Amino acid sequence: MDDPARSGKGLPRLRAIMERLRDPERGCPWDVEQDFASIAPYTIEEAYEVADAIEREAWDELEGELGDLLLQVVYHAQMAREADLFDFDSVAERVAQKMWDRHPHVFGDESNAKSAQQQVADWEAAKAKERRGRTLDGVALGLPALMRAEKLQKRAARVGFDWGEAGPVLDKIAEEAAEVAQAATPEERQEEVGDLLFTVVNLARHLEVDPEAALRTANAKFQRRFDAVEDGLAAAGRRPREATLDEMDALWNAARAAEKAGQS
């Protein structure tokens, strides 16, 4: 008999491999021990690795990263099948039906002569109709805090709880920064810094900037410039811990100037 884990192709082979890995008698002990909660962090990590490959335009890596992310879906679906909750086919059918229902301008009788902006608005309206309960219900707790802040604000904005422009948000940032400076205890500082970060996300939203992407770009820029600082010190036979802040700051400014010159 053909073994689909060996001779199959594509998705059927991947599902057969996962089923074998989870087999209590002949599977992998580590895989057998896992559950939804233990696998969830890997799912999040793999999604970020996909985003990282796209951000770097590392197209040679993207295929593998997408495969790793697909494996996570197959893993969760296999565990759900074992628990008689659902299976991979029902997952695929559910999202297929959702796409069908939310695109009446493609699959139904509605006109396709809509702008992308109007289609986004229709999509959000369909999602809101499907939801029940309070406005902010359903914004996943497991999202990164920056991303969740933006989603909470967008939900509130849909019902009118929002500033109409960026100006008042800038004023609010100044107010929150002053409250950070006045905070006296660790608990107060944490709360006030959180308020400041939340307001900065609000500013990004009003400026139509993706805060997650903006921070990723800032992280990459910081790493590039600090690498240049280390390279400059290494050329002199030194390490960062052996240099003064003024010396490192001078190398940082040189790296910054070189980047800006290269961009002009």
TrEMBL record:
<dbReference type="GO" id="GO:0046081">
    <property type="term" value="P:dUTP catabolic process"/>
</dbReference>
<dbReference type="GO" id="GO:0046061">
    <property type="term" value="P:dATP catabolic process"/>
</dbReference>
<dbReference type="GO" id="GO:0047693">
    <property type="term" value="F:ATP diphosphatase activity"/>
</dbReference>
<dbReference type="GO" id="GO:0046052">
    <property type="term" value="P:UTP catabolic process"/>
</dbReference>
<dbReference type="GO" id="GO:0046047">
    <property type="term" value="P:TTP catabolic process"/>
</dbReference>
<dbReference type="InterPro" id="IPR048011">
    <property type="entry name" value="NTP-PPase_MazG-like_C"/>
</dbReference>
<dbReference type="InterPro" id="IPR048015">
    <property type="entry name" value="NTP-PPase_MazG-like_N"/>
</dbReference>
<comment type="similarity">
    <text>Belongs to the nucleoside triphosphate pyrophosphohydrolase family.</text>
</comment>
<feature type="domain" description="NTP pyrophosphohydrolase MazG-like">
    <location>
        <begin position="171"/>
        <end position="226"/>
    </location>
</feature>
<dbReference type="InterPro" id="IPR011551">
    <property type="entry name" value="NTP_PyrPHydrolase_MazG"/>
</dbReference>
<keyword id="KW-0378">Hydrolase</keyword>
<feature type="domain" description="NTP pyrophosphohydrolase MazG-like">
    <location>
        <begin position="34"/>
        <end position="107"/>
    </location>
</feature>
<dbReference type="Pfam" id="PF03819">
    <property type="entry name" value="MazG"/>
</dbReference>
<protein>
    <recommendedName>
        <fullName>Nucleoside triphosphate pyrophosphohydrolase</fullName>
        <ecNumber>3.6.1.8</ecNumber>
    </recommendedName>
</protein>
<dbReference type="GO" id="GO:0006203">
    <property type="term" value="P:dGTP catabolic process"/>
</dbReference>
<dbReference type="InterPro" id="IPR004518">
    <property type="entry name" value="MazG-like_dom"/>
</dbReference>
<dbReference type="GO" id="GO:0006950">
    <property type="term" value="P:response to stress"/>
</dbReference>
<dbReference type="GO" id="GO:0046076">
    <property type="term" value="P:dTTP catabolic process"/>
</dbReference>
